[in-house]
């Protein structure tokens, strides 16, 4: 994958992962009430407002960390291929795959933690 395409892909994925983290944060704070369109709908999340907020509070930090790792992958690609005058440390595709894998794993972990938090209510 060429560097410019990988950079564009990572920027788009960083924006999307940041939006996902903001949605989870809004659900955790009560800004978005239980619904069938957006948010984590696992376990008993839709049973009450308290359950909805609890599920999203438990999932917030892992998902936010995944968005941060995606952003760091984007910064790493830009620094490695556009700024530093040496051979690149990783290929552009490896930056994309690494950032995407980190975010997917963080969403899975956040969903699992959210499910467990909902079951404890």
Q: Any overview of this molecule?
A:
This protein is mainly α and 121 residues long. The chain has one domain. Helices cover 74% and strands 0% of the residues. It is built from 3 helices and no strands. The chain has helices spanning 3-29, 49-83, 92-119. It is elongated.
Characteristic key phrases:
single chain; 121 residues; mainly alpha; 3 helices; membrane; transmembrane; transmembrane helix
Order of helices and strands: HHH
> Low-confidence parts lasting 5 or more residues at pLDDT below 50?
none
| End-to-end distance | 47 Å
Class inferred from helices and paired strands: mainly alpha
Arithmetic mean pLDDT? 93
Roughly what fraction of the amino acids lie in strands? under 5%
What is the helix content?
over 70%
Please report the total strand number as a whole number: 0
**Structural shape:** elongated
Rounded to an integer in angstroms, the radius of gyration calculated over CA atoms is 17 Å
List the helices and strands and how they pair.
Elements: H1 3-29, H2 49-83, H3 92-119
Helix pairs in contact: 1-2, 1-3, 2-3
In brief:
Pfam families: SdpI. Keywords: Membrane, Transmembrane, Transmembrane helix. The protein is mostly helical.
